[in-house]
């Protein structure tokens, strides 16, 4: 009895309790994406993209088939094996190569494929003039578009045109008082070996450090794109602490400051800003001969940046994220534009190794009062979620929860400002929201980090990238509907390992029998698939002070 | 010393043949042997083998050996037989045709030694004896006093055997008489032959004379001949019929023409006479004799890997068939007017099976071929699983697969033709007409046999496979056949007959007809059903293998199937739990079921989900009515509700025109009928239905798919032979006609017949009668009369091996048999008399 079961929809089920599970995971990881990692059986998916990435990494179809046959508990359907072999065979028929005479060319040893591609409607305008029978010119700026479009029509191009090295700039890690963790090293190295790609690590596992390590490996000028200004400062602080870079070498490019230095940190917001339909800050990409572009929280990459990235195909690109799920379903674009997934670690594995704090997720169910129920039932559909999510009944429960964790640092997270203000007043805690000035935000966060503030009420501005190491409890009162990654990112705020090793607690306060509960179920899906099983308790138990 | 077995058959007279009777293989004294007499001399076993190998000869069973011989040498029958020959057999046959042509001047027939030499082999060298034995067995070749002769029609069917031209005699006969005479006069002025044709033919048959003639020609002429020796034996020249003599010959062509080394066969074609070509070839008939098929080349994998992959596919197919038929039992597919299946239904089937349409088409056709799918009888009917499907489901998986595989092997339908257009431009529908290809089963077997002949685990390249198959059946090669072969390969892969392109281990025994063995090997590969699942916190349950039927059914009710394959992944959602509750399961039933069968503790979130749905499920329940009555007259319902006799029905008046009843519809209708009302049951909509929809089944198809129409099995073939023998005996029996008065008084003829037959009955003799049967056909019978009276003779009809009553007035003639009275046991085998 082996540990792997191959499904006809090309998912692979891995029984994690099995003695061969580790070996099997290593064997299938090159060509299958980890899709779900709950307690007992992990699900991997064999996608064309994953198979092509495996080919790009030097694996061939025989190895893939062999791994499946070796570990599969049951006979593997022949048609599936054939399909895998055929899919992998499509890779490399087309190659993007640098040509001394014509610059970038798309060449093929299989003339029929090239003919098909040249005639494909989706590639219209991307290809230049024909060079002989087996090649066609490509404008360098279309390199990204073309690769993406070729993926979509099922003829992935092997990109042999290489990367520009960019302007060299020595960067080294300054491992004084800390050490690069093994997985961080592995992630940075496998990224560097692959040239471009995405590293997926849970919140709190130190993605910034992976970025720093990648910069050290690249040893070149670097452009870092992050989500917001607070995050810009955090990156800057981290880089100063972790690397040999000095203040003068790091520039900030945000709404208020426009510095361009060997390492420049910019926000997505400023990059995506337009005046009269024109992106005004595009020149940043041209400002220096960047050797590396880092995309923090790459799952948030806005659409305009997608397009700009397509023009940056010759530069090394590193995407960092914890939750590569997009409710808009554009995960595939991230892979094709930034690069394939280079490293991925299940959250629970990280937790077991102590790199992130263990977390206990609890869904607290609150009953709406009689009058609220009536109001809810008659509310307009578009107002319903807002109504039940910001129910007054939640306030008492939140207060009870905060009191219960009086000794800990508690974040109360929500989406609706009225509700947050009300909670702030009720808990006597400061509220950070969109209109809070950056300076004030940083002051409050610093106070919270220092332990001067025990409770902080935050809106979704604190969903990402805010590093609050000692926060041990998060109470979520409302969210952006059914967003899975928001839920995971919010849990991520409390996942930094605590100095005393205590476990983190994440509460989701949910109104029973309303859309709030339905959305909650959807929001929890990503975490449930990462093995975080929610417990459900009743608000009455919380209020009664029972053990939870 | 090795003596090939076929030599026995060639020995003209066997020692144990009685001297006064013609031995097998020869005709009655004096007459030269014929094909018919040779055939008559074959043993019963050999004839049975002939009928098995050429089943078309036995449809219908021929009346006697003469008829069998005629049929065996009929053009179409021989063509069919040729199609089954492999390349080597065909070469041997061509050699026999080339050398044994009775228009060659030499003694008629090919000598075995000469034949072997022509094939560059020793007479006893394998596989020549076996192949000759087979050709004799197929009655394509027969023996005449130790020499091999082809059946006549082969001259026509193989016009240029071994790429040789016709014998000189044929060419000469077609020439103007004057021209032949000139040739004869020029080349052999002092011949003894009467006709000039013979004179030249005999001349060309003499190797010394041919060498001599060749010696007289120039090098250019000889080069010309060399170009034609190995065929094609024809050349084009202007004015082929020109008049030339050895003296006037001016060009190389004329040199040859004047010496009859080339003969005109048209106004501008010259043909190399067979005798000359044979002489020039100097012995061998073929440049290359291909005694064995080309080796099958391709990837070789361990056979276990191949078998495992194939078994995986086989398991997938089983699951697909189940999913298809379950889907169609819930929501049947419509039967098109032409009896087929619509494209939309096929698409739905493909979705249900989670596969593409081509695969779906094959599975639909295979399920139908296996008798699992049928139509109901109604007009505008539906495709439904048959009752056989229910039985099939109970079988262990290996048996289920074998049933599908065998059905596929024998099916004359090709699923991949579905969706194509016929000559008239009509779309051929799946399960409809137009998909039949009688050659398909043969193509499938050929492909599988070829794979079986390769080293285990070999996945031959398509070109290698087609070369191999071309060797096996050189006369069958055609685009249609190539398509069938390609389809067979593709279908075999989809059905799990092959894995990774090579033959699955469990198919080997199946090809030998050993189903038990196949089932044993396959059973070891297929997963065994489990009775547990793993329930996880992300609201999924994983069944790490196929589940026992009961559990699978219940789980499919409580949870949605998310992915299938070796395992099944179920996802619990509000809808799925509600579905279970709708089907009458309680909250406790569901949690009990999961607790009992889950290896892991149930996650709390799942318990909450079930409880939540359960709590809400009841909220809108309005009552427990399970049937209702509608009526446009409130008064009638008033009356019913008030009737004391209906109290047990639990009638509740919901509206003036609607009454709900607690009892089920069937009971309600039945009871109301007893009370003298005439309710009409109303279908589905609106009624609160607890329980799953009724599962529907088609009646079994009228006739199970007919197995291939060949005469199968030795028994059957032997029976056919017995019938032929009996007919032959009647037709050829030596008989002494009994004179019957033709113009005597009325009735005297019948009386005379009766006399003879009564006498025969008394003496226990057999007599021959001519008889006009009820259809007016004149037939002959050998009968043993037992009783003769009232214008009828009751007799044992030895021809048909049954007792019959013959009307005396229909008997046209009577003859005594040339027997010494008394019935005689016919020898089991051997010659007829």
Automatic annotation (TrEMBL), chain A:
<feature type="domain" description="Helicase C-terminal">
    <location>
        <begin position="393"/>
        <end position="548"/>
    </location>
</feature>
<keyword id="KW-0413">Isomerase</keyword>
<dbReference type="Pfam" id="PF04851">
    <property type="entry name" value="ResIII"/>
</dbReference>
<keyword id="KW-0378">Hydrolase</keyword>
<dbReference type="GO" id="GO:0043138">
    <property type="term" value="F:3'-5' DNA helicase activity"/>
</dbReference>
<comment type="similarity">
    <text>Belongs to the helicase family. RAD25/XPB subfamily.</text>
</comment>
<dbReference type="InterPro" id="IPR001650">
    <property type="entry name" value="Helicase_C-like"/>
</dbReference>
<dbReference type="Pfam" id="PF13625">
    <property type="entry name" value="Helicase_C_3"/>
</dbReference>
<dbReference type="InterPro" id="IPR032438">
    <property type="entry name" value="ERCC3_RAD25_C"/>
</dbReference>
<dbReference type="InterPro" id="IPR032830">
    <property type="entry name" value="XPB/Ssl2_N"/>
</dbReference>
<dbReference type="Pfam" id="PF16203">
    <property type="entry name" value="ERCC3_RAD25_C"/>
</dbReference>
<keyword id="KW-0547">Nucleotide-binding</keyword>
<keyword id="KW-0067">ATP-binding</keyword>
<dbReference type="InterPro" id="IPR027417">
    <property type="entry name" value="P-loop_NTPase"/>
</dbReference>
<dbReference type="GO" id="GO:0003677">
    <property type="term" value="F:DNA binding"/>
</dbReference>
<protein>
    <recommendedName>
        <fullName>DNA 3'-5' helicase</fullName>
        <ecNumber>5.6.2.4</ecNumber>
    </recommendedName>
</protein>
<dbReference type="GO" id="GO:0005524">
    <property type="term" value="F:ATP binding"/>
</dbReference>
<dbReference type="InterPro" id="IPR014001">
    <property type="entry name" value="Helicase_ATP-bd"/>
</dbReference>
<keyword id="KW-0347">Helicase</keyword>
<feature type="domain" description="Helicase ATP-binding">
    <location>
        <begin position="188"/>
        <end position="342"/>
    </location>
</feature>
<dbReference type="InterPro" id="IPR050615">
    <property type="entry name" value="ATP-dep_DNA_Helicase"/>
</dbReference>
<dbReference type="InterPro" id="IPR006935">
    <property type="entry name" value="Helicase/UvrB_N"/>
</dbReference>
<dbReference type="GO" id="GO:0016787">
    <property type="term" value="F:hydrolase activity"/>
</dbReference>
């Amino acid at each position: 009895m082996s540990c792997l079961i191959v499904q006809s929809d090309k998912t692979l089920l891995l029984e994690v309790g099995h003695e061969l599970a580790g070996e099997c995971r290593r064997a299938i990881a090159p060509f299958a994406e980890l899709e779900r990692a709950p307690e007992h059986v992990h699900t991997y998916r064999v996608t064309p993209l994953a198979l092509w990435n495996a080919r790009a990494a030097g694996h061939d179809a025989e190895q893939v088939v062999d791994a499946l046959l070796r570990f599969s508990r049951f006979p593997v359907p022949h048609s599936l094996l054939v399909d895998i072999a055929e899919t992998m065979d499509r890779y490399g028929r087309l190659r993007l190569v640098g040509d001394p005479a014509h610059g970038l060319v798309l060449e093929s040893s299989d003339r029929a494929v090239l003919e098909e591609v040249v005639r494909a409607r989706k590639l219209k305008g991307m290809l230049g003039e024909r060079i002989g029978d087996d090649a066609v010119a490509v404008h360098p700026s279309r390199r990204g578009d073309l690769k993406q479009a070729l993926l979509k029509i099922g003829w992935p191009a092997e990109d042999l045109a290489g990367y520009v090295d960019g302007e060299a700039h020595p960067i080294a890690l300054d491992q004084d008082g800390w050490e690069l963790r093994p997985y961080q090293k592995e992630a940075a190295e496998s990224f560097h070996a692959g040239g471009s790609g995405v590293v997926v690590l849970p919140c709190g596992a130190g993605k910034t450090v992976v970025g720093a390590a990648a910069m050290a490996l690249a040893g070149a000028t670097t452009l870092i794109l992050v989500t917001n200004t607070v995050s810009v400062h955090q990156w800057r602080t981290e880089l100063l602490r972790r690397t040999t870079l000095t203040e003068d070498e790091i520039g900030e490019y945000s709404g208020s400051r426009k510095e361009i230095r060997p390492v420049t940190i910019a926000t997505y917001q400023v990059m995506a800003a337009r005046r009269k339909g024109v992106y005004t800050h595009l020149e940043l990409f041209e400002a220096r001969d960047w050797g590396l572009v880092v995309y923090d929280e790459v799952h948030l990459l806005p659409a305009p940046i997608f397009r700009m990235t397509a023009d940056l195909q010759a530069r090394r690109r590193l995407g960092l994220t914890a939750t590569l799920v997009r409710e808009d379903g554009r995960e595939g674009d991230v892979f094709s534009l930034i690069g394939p997934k280079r490293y991925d670690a299940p959250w629970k594995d990280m937790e077991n190794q102590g790199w992130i704090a263990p977390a206990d997720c609890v869904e607290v169910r609150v009953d709406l009062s009689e009058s609220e129920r009536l109001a809810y039932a008659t509310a307009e559909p578009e107002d319903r979620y807002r109504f039940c999510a910001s129910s007054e009944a939640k306030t008492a429960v939140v207060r009870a929860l905060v009191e219960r964790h009086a000794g800990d640092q508690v974040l109360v997270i929500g989406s609706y400002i009225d509700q947050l203000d009300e909670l702030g007043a009720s808990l006597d805690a400061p509220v950070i929201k969109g209109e809070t000035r950056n300076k004030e935000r940083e002051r409050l966060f610093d106070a919270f980090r220092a332990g001067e503030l025990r409770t902080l009420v935050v809106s979704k501005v604190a969903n990402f990238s805010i590093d609050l190491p000692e926060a041990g409890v998060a109470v979520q009162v409302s969210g952006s509907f059914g967003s899975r990654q928001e839920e995971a990112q919010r849990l991520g705020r409390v996942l930094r390992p605590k100095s005393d090793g205590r476990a983190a607690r994440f509460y989701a306060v949910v109104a029973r029998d309303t859309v709030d509960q339905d959305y909650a179920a959807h929001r929890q899906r990503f975490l449930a698939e990462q093995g975080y099983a929610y417990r459900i308790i009743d608000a009455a138990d919380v209020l009664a002070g029972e053990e939870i | 010393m090795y003596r090939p077995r076929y030599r026995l058959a060639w020995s003209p007279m066997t020692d144990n043949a009685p001297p006064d009777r013609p031995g097998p293989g020869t005709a009655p004294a004096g007459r030269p042997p014929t094909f018919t007499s040779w055939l008559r001399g074959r043993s019963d076993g050999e004839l049975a083998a002939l009928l098995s190998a050429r089943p078309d000869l036995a449809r219908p069973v021929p009346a006697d050996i003469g008829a069998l011989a005629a049929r065996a040498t009929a053009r179409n029958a021989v063509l069919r037989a040729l199609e089954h020959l492999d390349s080597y057999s065909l070469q041997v046959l061509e050699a026999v045709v080339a050398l044994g042509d009775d228009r060659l001047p030499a003694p008629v027939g090919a000598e075995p030694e000469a034949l072997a030499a022509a094939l560059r082999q020793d007479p006893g060298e394998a596989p020549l004896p076996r192949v000759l034995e087979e050709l004799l067995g197929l009655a394509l070749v027969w023996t005449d006093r130790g020499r091999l002769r082809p059946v006549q029609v082969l001259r026509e069917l193989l016009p240029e055997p071994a790429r040789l031209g016709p014998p000189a005699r044929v060419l000469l006969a077609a020439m103007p008489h004057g021209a032949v005479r000139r040739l004869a006069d020029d080349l052999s002025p002092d011949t003894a032959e009467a006709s000039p044709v013979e004179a030249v033919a005999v001349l060309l048959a003499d190797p010394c004379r041919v060498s001599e003639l060749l010696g007289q020609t120039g090098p250019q002429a000889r080069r010309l001949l060399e170009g034609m020796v190995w065929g094609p034996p024809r050349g084009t020249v202007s004015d082929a019929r020109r008049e030339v003599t050895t003296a006037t010959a001016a060009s190389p062509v004329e040199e040859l023409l004047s010496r009859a080394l080339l003969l005109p066969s048209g106004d501008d074609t010259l043909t190399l006479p067979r005798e000359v070509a044979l002489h020039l070839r100097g012995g061998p008939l073929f440049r290359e004799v291909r005694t064995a098929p080309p080796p099958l080349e391709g990837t070789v994998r361990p056979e276990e890997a191949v078998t495992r992959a194939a078994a995986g596919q086989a398991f997938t197919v089983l699951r697909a068939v189940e999913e298809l038929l379950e889907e169609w039992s819930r929501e049947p597919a419509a039967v098109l007017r032409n009896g087929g299946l619509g494209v939309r239904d096929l698409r739905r089937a493909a979705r249900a099976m989670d596969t593409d349409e081509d695969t779906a088409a094959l599975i639909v056709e295979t399920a139908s071929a296996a008798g699992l799918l049928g139509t109901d009888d109604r007009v505008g009917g539906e495709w439904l699983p048959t009752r056989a499907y229910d039985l099939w489901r109970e079988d262990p998986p290996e048996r289920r697969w074998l049933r599908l595989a065998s059905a596929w092997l024998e099916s004359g339908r090709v699923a991949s033709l579905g969706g194509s257009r016929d000559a008239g431009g009509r779309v051929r529908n799946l399960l409809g007409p137009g998909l039949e290809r009688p050659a398909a089963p043969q193509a499938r077997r050929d492909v599988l046999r070829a794979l079986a002949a390769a080293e285990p685990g070999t996945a031959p390249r398509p070109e290698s496979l087609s070369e191999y198959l071309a060797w096996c059946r050189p006369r069958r090669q055609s685009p249609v056949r190539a398509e069938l072969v390609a389809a067979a390969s593709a279908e075999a892969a989809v059905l799990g007959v092959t894995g990774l392109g090579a033959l699955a281990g469990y198919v080997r025994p199946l090809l030998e007809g050993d189903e038990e063995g196949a089932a044993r090997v396959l059973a070891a590969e297929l997963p065994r059903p489990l009775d547990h699942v793993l329930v996880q916190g992300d609201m999924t349950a994983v069944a790490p293998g196929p589940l026992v039927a009961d559990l699978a059914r219940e789980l499919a009710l409580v949870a949605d199937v998310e992915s299938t394959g070796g395992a099944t992944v179920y996802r619990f959602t509000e809808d799925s739990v509600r579905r279970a509750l709708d089907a009458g399961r309680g909250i406790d039933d569901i949690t009990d079921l999961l607790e009992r069968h889950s290896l892991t503790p149930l996650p709390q979130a799942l318990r909450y989900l079930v409880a939540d749905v359960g709590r809400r499920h009841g909220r809108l329940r309005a009552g427990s009515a399970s049937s209702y009555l509608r009526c446009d007259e409130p008064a009638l319902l008033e009356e019913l509700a008030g009737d004391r006799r209906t109290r047990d029905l639990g009638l509740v008046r919901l509206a003036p025109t609607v009454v709900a009843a607690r009892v089920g519809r069937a009971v309600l209708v039945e009871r109301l009928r007893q009370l003298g009302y005439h309710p009409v049951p109303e279908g589905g909509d609106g009624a609160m239905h607890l329980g799953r929809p009724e599962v529907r089944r088609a009646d079994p198809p009228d006739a199970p798919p007919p197995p291939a129409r060949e005469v199968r099995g030795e028994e059957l073939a032997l029976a056919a032979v017995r019938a032929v023998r009996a007919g032959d005996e009647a037709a050829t029996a030596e008989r002494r006609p009994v004179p019957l008065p033709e113009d005597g008084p009325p009735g005297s003829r019948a009386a005379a017949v009766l006399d003879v037959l009564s006498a025969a009955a008394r003496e226990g003799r057999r007599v021959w009668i001519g008889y006009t049967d009820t259809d007016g056909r004149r037939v002959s019978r050998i009968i043993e009369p037992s009783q003769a009276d009232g214008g009828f003779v009751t007799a044992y009809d030895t021809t048909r091996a049954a007792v019959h009553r013959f009307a005396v007035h229909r008997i046209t003639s009577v003859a005594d048999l040339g027997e010494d009275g008394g019935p005689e046991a016919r020898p089991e085998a051997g010659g007829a008399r």
